[in-house]
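Anyone? Bumping this.
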Amino acid sequence: MKSERGSGTQTHFSGQHIVKAENLLKKFDGFVAVNRISFQVETGKCFGILGPNGAGKTTTIRMVYGFSPMSGGSLKVFDLDISRDWRRIKSRIGVCQQENSLDPDLTVFQNLEVFARYFNIPNKEARKKAKELLDFIALDHRLNAPVTELSGGMMRRLVLARSLINHPDLLILDEPTTGLDPQSRHQIWEKLEALREQGISILLTTHYMEEASRLCDRLIIIDHGLILVEGKPEELIQQHVGKHVIEIAGPTQELRSFIQSTQFPYEDLGHRLIVYCEKSGDLYQRITRDFCKEGCLMRMATLEDVFLKLTGRELRE
Amino acid sequence: MIETSSTRISKRFLRVWQRNLKVYKKSWKISFIPPFLEPLFYLIAFGVGMSGLVGEIHHQGSQISYVSFIAPALIGVSIMYNSFFETTYASFVRMYYQKTFDAMLATPLSLEEVITGEIVWGATKSLIAAAIMMVVISFFGFIRFPEGLLLLPLAILGGIAFGSIGMFFSGIVANIEMFNLPVFLFITPMFLFSGTFFPLENLPHWAQQAAFLFPLTHLTSLARAFSYGQIHLSLLWEIGYLLLFSIIFFPLAILKMRQRLIK
Ligand SMILES: Nc1ncnc2c1ncn2[C@@H]1O[C@H](COP(=O)(O)OP(=O)(O)OP(=O)(O)O)[C@@H](O)[C@H]1O
Ligand SMILES: [Mg+2]
């Protein structure tokens, strides 16, 4: 059997949308985990799915890579139907699952070698590709180490390498940097950026807003299986919180009344006020001059503000 | 999934088998020891220690020594153990703790291929064990050739049968401790009451009837026939029983694993 993909240029899919999900529904014995959501991943772009714990991110992408059957809706990947052409689709995608699924019985190199076989990649080509990938993720010096000896960051990088063994057109990453230190996280980001440069489409879930802002061309924020918003990260920030955020710790009653009178949108967390504003220089100056000398801070609005504003601040179970 | 059911098992299952072989080869020297030593221990214990008490055994109209009576049964038991323990404890560890199946299911492998690969691997371990034991036991002169070579295909058939039912249990147990139950209620009684260490005729009639439901009874009986070179047509019934057992439990194993893994 020959390998499905040569090792030449990356993009083989020329349609506009590499993933098209329409009214995607997933029920677990009556419990609706994904509630008829529709989204499209543009070819060659990075698409993010954000949401609190239990929002339905993993469930959604598991349907995309053909792990979980859908309870309803339609799903096209590479313009193919996942329930019929699952093998063709799966041979052209790479997946990093949320949980570590490296093979602890094998070494670093063997993990890639054995995984390549699942795609029917010939041994010689597989070994060559494995070497290249270990180079790419800077693990070539640990070739023969058992994976159980790797650090968390190394494991995550190896999982990434493993998902690239078949030259995928679409890379699906479920929280690729959770639990990593800043160094490892930045390293993964750089790798992912390099891959996107090569034309690989990426579908990603994450809890890190910084990661989403940096990597995603478009994203959706979902909660309770529903899409809350969709858009480009900067646009979402602009639309939902504006440019700046002023955080006031331990606000007094006068300050509260003052903020109320300014008509700026704000959130009152009791011990903390969060004011969203487009142009804030004057406001910030007035607050610090007239109300509080310290405990008041102005910063650029981030995706995290959007996220918290839309999904609320209560803990999820 | 009717439309794809025909393509859900391809020879790609061999990729899963190859993975297990690769891991096995890393420690084959250690893996070879049990099937090598086990028959030696048994033959010494029973041959030297017990045969004085037991003497000769009446088997199919002739008198044979006790050791030559149990020697083929040891191969049968080993075929059972190797595949059953592979597709229970070992497969469960891969599935549950190592997430190996999850990783495989993100590749073009189907669930059917993963499970088939595991069961066929279990049968392969039975085959390896049977082959090593055959060599050891042959040195004592308890196996007649060339008929004895039939033990090898028998190991594969028995391995598929016990591997399938093992995988079936893997599909339904809540946790790894629960394997104690099928081991205690299914494997151990078979080990003792399948005509392995004493002829079935020594049992009361009802127990004999029950023992005929045990796949190990037929596996042992076939192992004896092949070892002694007593080939006759009635063996087809026993082969048929093992086939039937496999044909029932192989799809059941896949069904239960599908229910367990595909959410
Ligand atoms: N196999 C299952 N059976 C029943 N319910 C499930 C199953 N898998 C997930 N769920 C439920 O579906 C919902 C969505 O889960 P999912 O794993 O998709 O969340 P997530 O967004 O990936 O969360 P996290 O950020 O914690 O990974 C949760 O309420 C979860 O409990
Ligand atoms: Mg998740």
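Late reply, but here is one note on the structure posted above: The longest strand of chain B covers residues 56-59.
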